[in-house]
Amino acid sequence: MATKYYKTISSDDPRIVILEFKKNFPMAIMFMRLQEYTEGIKAMRGNLLSEGDSLLAYYKKRKEIWYKSGWAGFNLRGDTLSKIYRNVSEFETTLWNNLEEQLWGIFYKLYREHGQNCYIVSYIKGDKTTLRHELHHAKYYLNREYREAVDKLLSKRKHKKARKYLEKLGYSLSGKGGKYIFRDEIQAYHSEKHKPTTKALGLTKEEQKKLLKLSKQYL
User: Fold this and answer.
1) What percent of the chain has pLDDT over 70?
2) What value does the mean pLDDT of the chain take?
3) Which of 87, 110, 155, 208 is the most exposed place for a label (fewest CB within 10 A)?
4) What mean pLDDT do residues 47-60 have?
């Protein structure tokens, strides 16, 4: 499927939908409120704010309307979308924009075929590094064997440097689901093979080697 702003590209896993966008802004408008419901800034985490209030929350936090270019890609878990649809009382009264409506349509189709065991990712055309990052998120969620192997490796120490780095980027790593997000982000950022990022995460050479081996084995 192709639209004015994005097209769907093929994935080796039918449970994963990949959306390739032309520009950052439409991508952010599609994903912003749903992505931030799980791992966003405090004002948006667990809340469905209006689009205006969402932008104001970011303005208050960053002193600018930062969100439109703040992230290179997005990812949404099937269980997150299912929770919002089924359990959030504001769902029926929320005014969804056209791109969000399209996103829900994509999810409904996935859900009919795979239940919560599905994933949606997005990136900007040509940015293969971000695509690899987002697909690692999908694999971490969908492949239990891979996730448990990553968790076993990363649970051996606290990774204080990585926590500091990710929190500075804006990730919420506390509360319910914080441990999942923390380890998920470490393995996803490592997959980018970007030396400054790897250094910022504080990964040892042995950890880097083992994460790379797991990536090659499962992806």
Assistant:
1) 92
2) 89
3) 87
4) 76
Structure tokens at 51: 């689009």
Q: What is the pTM of this model?
A: 0.89
Closest CA to 123 of 15, 2, 31, 1: 31
CA dihedral 32, 142, 163, 153 (to 10 degrees): -170
Burial of 205 (0-12, 13-18, 19+ CB in 10 A): exposed
Residue type, 41: I
Sheet-wide strand order for 16-21: 6-9, 16-21, 119-124, 73-77
Angle, helices 144-154 vs 205-218, to 10°: value is 180
Q: For residues 115 and 78, is the Cβ–Cβ distance under 8 A? A: yes
User: CA separation (Å) from 52 to 36, 55, 106?
Assistant: 14, 5, 24
According to DSSP, the residues that pair with 7 across neighbouring strands are 2, 20
Compute the C-alpha angle 67/71/77, nearest 5°: 105
In whole angstroms, what separates CA 160 from the centre of its chain? 21
Asked if 106 contacts 89 with a C-beta cutoff of 8 angstroms, the reply is: no
Residue 181 · residue 173 · CB < 8 Å: yes
pLDDT at 84 over 90: no
Residue with tokens 């797991």: 214
